[in-house]
């Protein structure tokens, strides 16, 4: 059996190729992919041929935010059944290294992650009609949940892990900087975690409107109100107990310090290249700066929250485009003025 694949060969060179699909072995399933979300890393591969030192050195099938239907199961599979709708976890940790043995699977030294050029040969992704996966990667979702919603389980897992890195949020005041797809989902994750107040800020009104739908109690357009956070919330010593910094812009991380209350926590979600920080403020206010990397056990939680619509991801979905129009879909995904989460449709 042959499958269409969405492959980047170099910057701006995106093609629909085909590849053979094998049969599921013991503990494996054959999944018919229904939808896949275009992530920031997919965009970097398409627009620039990579990011930082990570470059496309051979044709790379993109995609790691996917969901579909179990078509066939291999011997011994009990977690899922044929015909069941599932979200597909793109992470395959080795289970043997010291980090895996201590439960820190996100730091696995031999991680295989869909659609990544970190290793050579590259780890091929899941933007394809069919894929053979491990049953442990499959998380069932409700039959009334669309595949487009289920495909949002992966970015929601990232947001849930970031919130977990902040510690308990019950009754806390939270600032989310950047209201793109991850920022909007971070708002929803913070609300689920019990935050009392969630303020989202961004340079554009459209993502801020979506952040409100996801649970933000207030929003600030920092393009039209550049000093609004400091004027309305800082109060000299700072206001927010937690900041979820989702932009990766160096100036944002540096500029947010006055808004953080003493002993507050900043979780750095976006990836800045380099940052100059006022360490005196960090020290005197006893602020904790914490990193967050992908997710660990949050994927199954995300699947349940989406399945039960305790977190409704539909507001972040702005377009669903057929696979054969993938180049157009990537152009849409790169336009943050008009689109949030753009998904490919494999039906």
Walkthrough of the structure:
- The structure is a single chain.
- With 347 residues, the protein is an alpha/beta fold.
- The chain folds into two domains: 2-152 and 313-345, Medium-chain alcohol dehydrogenases, catalytic domain (Quinone Oxidoreductase, Chain A, domain 1, Alpha-Beta Complex); 157-291, Rossmann fold, CATH 3.40.50.720.
- Helix content is 25%, strand content 30%.
- It has eleven helices and 20 strands.
- It has helices spanning 40-48, 98-101, 147-150, 153-165, 181-192, 205-213, 228-234, 250-255, 279-284, 298-307, 326-333, and strands spanning 2-10, 13-20, 28-37, 50-51, 54-55, 60-61, 65-73, 85-88, 91-92, 112-113, 130-134, 138-140, 173-177, 197-202, 218-221, 240-245, 260-268, 288-291, 317-322, 341-345.
- The strands form five sheets. Strands 3, 7, 8, 11, 12, 19 and 20 form a seven-stranded mixed sheet that branches.
- The longest helix has 13 residues, at 153-165.
- The relative contact order is 0.16.
- The mean pLDDT is 95.
What is the CATH first-level class name of the largest domain? Alpha Beta
The CATH topology of the largest domain corresponds to: Quinone Oxidoreductase, Chain A, domain 1
Low-confidence parts, pLDDT < 50 over ≥5 residues? none
Oligomerization: single chain
The CATH architecture of the largest domain comes to: Alpha-Beta Complex
The shape is: globular
| Sheet with the most strands, sense and barrel status | 7 strands, mixed
Which percent range describes the beta-strand content? 25-35%
Structural class: alpha/beta
User: What's the helix count?
Assistant: 11
Please bin the fraction of helical residues.
Answer: 25-40%
Instruction: Give average pLDDT, whole number.
Output: 95
How many whole angstroms does the radius of gyration measure? 20 Å
* DSSP strand count: 20
Terminus-to-terminus distance: 16 Å
Number of domains: 2
Looking at CATH, the homologous superfamily of the largest domain is Medium-chain alcohol dehydrogenases, catalytic domain
């Amino acid at each position: 059996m042959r499958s269409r694949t969405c492959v980047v060969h170099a910057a701006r060179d995106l093609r629909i190729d085909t590849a053979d699909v094998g049969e599921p072995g013991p503990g494996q399933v054959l999944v018919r992919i229904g939808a896949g979300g275009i992530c920031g890393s997919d965009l970097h591969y398409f627009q620039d041929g990579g990011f930082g030192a990570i470059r496309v050195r051979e044709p790379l099938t993109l995609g790691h935010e996917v969901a579909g239907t179990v078509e066939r199961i291999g011997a011994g599979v009990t977690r899922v059944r044929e015909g069941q709708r599932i979200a597909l976890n793109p992470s395959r940790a080795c289970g043997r290294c010291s980090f895996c043995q201590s439960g820190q699977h996100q730091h696995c030294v031999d991680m295989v992650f869909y659609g990544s050029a970190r290793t050579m040969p590259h780890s091929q992704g899941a933007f394809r009609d069919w894929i053979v996966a491990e049953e442990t990667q499959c998380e069932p979702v409700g039959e009334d949940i669309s595949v487009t919603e289920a495909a949002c389980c992966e970015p929601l897992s990232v947001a849930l892990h970031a919130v977990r890195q902040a510690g308990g949020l019950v009754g806390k005041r939270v600032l989310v900087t950047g209201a793109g797809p991850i920022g909007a989902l971070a708002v929803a994750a913070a609300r689920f975690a019990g935050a009392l107040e969630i303020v989202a800020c961004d340079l554009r009104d459209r993502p801020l409107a979506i952040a409100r739908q996801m649970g933000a109690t207030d929003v600030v357009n920092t393009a039209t109100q550049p000093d609004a956070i400091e004027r309305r919330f800082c109060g000299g010593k700072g206001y927010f107990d937690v900041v979820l910094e989702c932009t990766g812009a160096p100036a944002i991380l540096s500029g947010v310090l006055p808004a953080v209350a003493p002993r507050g926590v900043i979780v750095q979600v976006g990836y800045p290249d380099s940052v100059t920080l006022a360490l005196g403020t960090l020290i005197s206010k006893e602020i904790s700066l914490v990193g967050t990397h992908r997710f660990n056990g949050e994927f199954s939680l995300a699947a349940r929250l989406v399945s039960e619509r305790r977190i409704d991801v539909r507001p972040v979905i702005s377009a669903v485009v057929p696979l054969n129009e993938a180049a157009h879909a990537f152009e849409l995904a790169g336009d943050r003025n008009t689109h949030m989460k753009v998904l490919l449709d494999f039906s």
